[in-house]
Amino acid sequence: MSEAIPSSDVVVVGGGLSGLLCALYLARAGIEVTVLDADPLAFGPQANNASLASLGLVQLGTAEHPHRLAHALGMERAKQYLAFSQRSIALLAEEVPMERGGLRVGIGAEIDELEQAVALSQDLGVPSSLWSQERVAEHLGCQLLGPARHVPMDARLDPAEALSILTEKARAAGARLMEGQRVRSVELDNSITLHSDGGQVRCELVVYAASWGLRTLDHWFADKVFPVRAALLETAPSGRPALQGASAQYGYLSWQSAPSGGLRVSGARWATPHMETGEVERTPHPKVQKALQGFLDKSFAADAQAGVVAVRAGIQGYTCDNLPLIGPLPGARRVACTGFADTGWSLAAAGAQIVAQGILGEQPVYPDFLKPQRLVGI
Ligand SMILES: Cc1cc2nc3c(=O)[nH]c(=O)nc-3n(C[C@H](O)[C@H](O)[C@H](O)COP(=O)(O)OP(=O)(O)OC[C@H]3O[C@@H](n4cnc5c(N)ncnc54)[C@H](O)[C@@H]3O)c2cc1C
Question: In the CATH scheme, what is the homologous superfamily, with its name and number, of domain 8-51+161-224+321-376?
């Protein structure tokens, strides 16, 4: 195979949100960096990645309530996780426009957990306040929803706009962005050789930011990262003012205003028995689509009447323990920045910054439970 691609200090595999941010930080620090993405239209409005398909909520921590995070990780780690997410949102806000404030609405049994969540959010240093059902209904102009936690540190953005800004910034900083370059294999020798559709490229270090695509590219990921499909519906404009971004059902339903003035609704993976795990086709499951349409019909009737104008799905990369993988892989010269599941917009910037700092020889301080070593007991 010919050497069609010039060699580079660092090659980033994957040009979604996390790959672009890694490239941006590295190029700004003067590192020669090339991004290879499999998609022929990777950096445009037709890209196939989850980043472009996403809703664009920038939710502090996880979409679930903080007591659930504390229950899963323990109080100390939950604090570290939230601080990491807070730092990531602040970093992203330096690069792209976003609107602050978000609602975590309670539906059904979840309502009883809201007060506990508000109290714990103070202890965890990420305050939120309770909004009554009437206030939620008035703000959202909706029916049938419950009270909510208002999280001032949450935000929302337009993924297409944000990705286009990050692409331009990465290019302007000197990163080489190459599309239609699916990396087929990675050879580790004295230097690293990546074999892609356009030829081969040598580098000193590879950053893996290819989400679930990594499971077939490097065996290390085979049992650690897996695909999960998520879907989104967008309505025509209904004349409503822009909303704060919001989620409900512990994050399994979320929505926000579209730039067009319509409403975007995402989630409802629970409509399939396997929660869309393992699905790689970018077509929404009919049951998920029906559940999203049903939610629109019940809660946002005016928007539903305006009609659905776009339906799409994207494939997210989850890890086996549901936490991102950030930093060097065992064996060195391969660095991970991936596994952001359904909260990439609030985690990827800090992940990318840590990756860049590590490559620059700094010693970034971040939670051990985000490091790849955790999964192999090192
Ligand atoms: C419908 C939907 C709604 C969502 N809503 C939100 C939300 O509101 N808030 C939030 O924070 N997150 C949300 N997410 C999740 C979010 O999109 C992801 O966390 C984030 O986009 C992950 O970014 P990434 O760069 O890791 O992956 P991706 O954006 O998927 O990028 C990975 C890239 O790697 C490339 N690639 C794969 N394999 C190879 C290979 N072998 N060689 C070269 N390139 C390769 C792909 O082409 C792709 O461009 C949503 C996702 C979906 C689908």
Answer: FAD/NAD(P)-binding domain (3.50.50.60)
Q: How far is CA 3 from CA 174, 199, 330, in A?
A: 21, 5, 28
Distance of CA 200 to the CA centre of its chain: 29
User: Which CATH architecture fits 102-153+226-319?
Assistant: 2-Layer Sandwich (3.30)
Q: Give the pLDDT confidence score for residue 1 in this predicted structure.
A: 41
Q: How far away, in angstroms, is 210 Cα from ligand 1 center?
A: 8
**Predicted local confidence at residue 86, as pLDDT:** 97
pTM above 0.90, yes or no: yes
Q: In the chain, which residues have pLDDT < 70?
A: 1-4, 144, 378
Closest C-alpha to 338, from 91, 17, 9: 17
Ligand 1 near 268 CB (within 6 A): no
Q: What is the pLDDT of residues 228-272, one digit of tens each?
A: 999 999 999 998 888 889 999 999 999 999 999 999 999 999 999
pLDDT of res. 331 = 84
What pLDDT does residue 144 have? 67
Q: Is the CB of 57 under 6 A from ligand 1?
A: yes
Domain ranges of the chain: 8-51+161-224+321-376, 102-153+226-319
Ligand 1 atom with the smallest distance to the CA of 210 is: 34
Ligand 1 centre distance from Cα of residue 354 (Å): 19
